[in-house]
Amino acid sequence: MNDVGAEVSQAPRRTVLAQPWDIAIIGAGIVGLAAARDILRRQTGTRLVVLEKEPEIGRHQTGHNSGVIHSGIYYAPGSLKAQLCVAGAASITRFCDERGIPWQRCGKVIVATEQAELPRLQSLYERGLANGVPGLRLINADELREVEPHVRGVQALVSPDTGVVDYLQVARLYADDIQEMGGEIRTSHAVVGIDRRGGRSLVTTTGGEIEADAVVSCAGLYSDRVAQLTGASPDPRIVPFRGDYYVLRPERRHLVRGNIYPVPDPAFPFLGVHFTPRMNGDLWLGPNAVLAFSREGYAFRDVSPRELVGLATSGSFRTFARRHWRIGLSEMARALSKRRFLESLRKFIPELEMDDLLPGPSGVRAQALGADGKLVDDFVVDHTEGTLHVRNAPSPAATSSLQIGKLIADEVERLR
User: Fold this and answer.
1) Cα end-to-end distance, the chain, whole Å
2) 391: burial class by Cβ within 10 Å (0-12, 13-18, 19+)?
3) Mean pLDDT on 218-236
4) In the chain, pLDDT over 90 holds for what percent of residues?
5) Spatial separation of the C-alpha atoms in residues 2 and 51, rounded to whole Å
6) How far apart are alpha carbons 109 and 146 in whole angstroms?
7) Considering 106, 135, 146, 251, which has the largest number of Cβ atoms within 10 A of its Cβ?
8) What are 264-286's pLDDT values in tens digits?
9) Residue 161 pLDDT greater than 80, yes or no
10) Which own/partner pairs from 127-131 qualify as long-range (CB within 8 Å, at least 24 positions apart)?
11) Contacts of 13 by beta carbon, 8 Å cutoff, 6+ apart
12) How many beta carbons lie within 10 A of that of residue 378, not counting itself?
């Protein structure tokens, strides 16, 4: 029997739970819950259980993300991210309206602060149009000041439909739907083994064993480890990146009206620091992107020796590190220096002062790294016998959750 490892504190009980299941879903984040909900909506009477290692749902990426409802600008036309994000933004806002979940259409500007960024901004505009993002338009510096009076830039791309929502609230409603349709959610059930026997899967958890016809892994930060339990390839492996935020001092919230983003740097795989309104009225500043020293490394002090050894011995990670070490060191320096962080923000809003930045939250992104040492750009879904694996589902997975759920439900029908 294989073992996921360090997160398991005691040997699982060997009692096989009495009820056989049609489908077991591993992970009660927003993607796993959306998948479970869609499967149950299609297949009335399906015996489905969601297994979650934490004592409650949505403890990691779902509960730590920025809350942005992305519009689909950044992603390669034809990719899963492009297709599912554009459709997902429409479906998530419709779901919120139908279920009474508050959300805000606060818009977004992607701001070029220097002439050298204009060709990349133009490419983003063209990509967004190709993806069917509604309402996109390029504006000049004077028009930018009308949209965001305190922001300075030479040109900007406006996405009027970008919004924000509390995704944990969304996930909780998904969970309510699952239970109302007869599904179960079992928290404090970390999966430590998966064995395929006689056309069924025996899933061993810290809360006992279950049998299921099919297994769906939506394990986020642990998706590669769960895949290995089934004998699947260790690639793509998950590399955790921590993003740290500051919060804008409440008295200065008038400086920001909506989402303000930089033009992405093609040399770096993340978007860069930005300004994000929150549903509770807060304004988040960030994040940076630094290597986390643990799968759940929400602070510098969170260190997993197992994780560090795994990274040090991984050829794909060493290749990645050789390509990006300069940017990695720059991000680490910014994470350790509030002044550097402020300098990055002042490129867009020069009025910001050191006292405007209050301590904020952090999150960890489960980013898949391919065997070639490149970060995987798109969502990845594959299977082994009896098991469907969601191998890469970082942002915009929350925006796309209802559409990813449909994709998974389609695959499960074929799997069974």
Assistant:
1) 24
2) buried
3) 95
4) 87
5) 17
6) 12
7) 106
8) 987 666 788 999 999 999 999 99
9) yes
10) 127/73, 127/74, 127/75, 127/76, 127/77, 128/71, 128/72, 128/73, 128/157, 128/159, 130/77, 131/72, 131/73, 131/75, 131/77, 131/82, 131/85, 131/86
11) 207, 208, 209
12) 15
Query: Rounded CA gap, 26 and 216, in Å?
Result: 6
**Spatial CB neighbours of 17, under 8 Å, sequence gap ≥ 6:** 208, 209, 210
- Give the mean pLDDT of 300-305: 93
Using alpha carbons, select from 358, 366, 369, 410 the residue that is nearest to residue 388.
410
Q: Which two tokens stand for residue 408?
A: 């998974």
- At 1, is the pLDDT very low, low, confident or very high (cuts 50, 70, 90)? very low
User: CA–CA separation, 244 vs 204, rounded Å?
Assistant: 35
Cβ atoms of 73 and 133 within 8 Å: the answer is yes
Query: Which spans in 43-79 are helix H?
Result: 61-64
Single out the residue of 118, 117, 384 nearest to residue 229, CA to CA: 384
Q: pLDDT tens digits, residue range 208-218?
A: 999 999 999 99
Burial zone of 339 (CB within 10 Å; 0-12 exposed, 13-18 middle, 19+ buried) = exposed
Q: What pTM was computed for the model? A: 0.93
* Residue whose token pair is 């699982």: 12
Residue with tokens 């730590």: 64
Can you give the pLDDT at residue 65?
Answer: 94
The CA distance from 377 to 369, in Å, is: 9
Report the pLDDT averaged over residues 86-109.
98
Q: What is the pLDDT of residues 3-17, one digit of tens each?
A: 444 343 344 444 544
Query: Phi, psi (5° rounding) for residue 137?
Result: -155, 145
Question: What is the DSSP-derived secondary structure letter of residue 15?
Answer: P
> What is residue 334's predicted lDDT score, i.e. its pLDDT?
87
Which amino acid, residue 400? S
Mean pLDDT rounded to a whole number for the chain: 93
The answer for residues whose C-beta is within 8 angstroms of residue 390's C-beta and 6 or more apart is 31, 216, 217, 218, 219, 223, 379, 380, 381, 404, 408
Whether the Cβ atoms of residue 303 and residue 164 lie closer than 8 Å to each other = no
